[in-house]
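Example record

The entry below shows one chain as it appears in the dataset: sequence first, then structure tokens.
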Amino acid sequence: MALVETKGLAFPISFSPLGHLNRASGATKLKGNMSQIILTAVGERLMRPRFGTRGTKAVFRKTDEVTAALLQSTVVESLTMYEPRVQVVQVDVWPEDRPAGRFLLIRVGYRLRSSGEFSTVDLEVPLV
């Protein structure tokens, strides 16, 4: 399946000025799909109980190398299982302090299986 055929609702869900659900396609849709997988907790979707990652539990853990390694592992595993259009090349996780609070930053480097093109997805998860 070619990347240009990827179409659907935008993530995060938003509305147009006319009140319609916004749609996304191509690379934008693919990155949205990957974000959904990473930010969904395992067990959160009743009809797909194994969908997602254990990454959301990391926000309650101490931010150390063990937590980063656990998060990297679960991201690779989940993206490999639920997003077959990409090959995960690298996952980096690090904490960052900001005036708005403490965040866990996640950068996923991936290669499209169809074309070999490399890209990244960056996510910010607020720590509790």
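Notes for this example: The longest strand covers residues 86-98. The chain has a mean pLDDT of 86.
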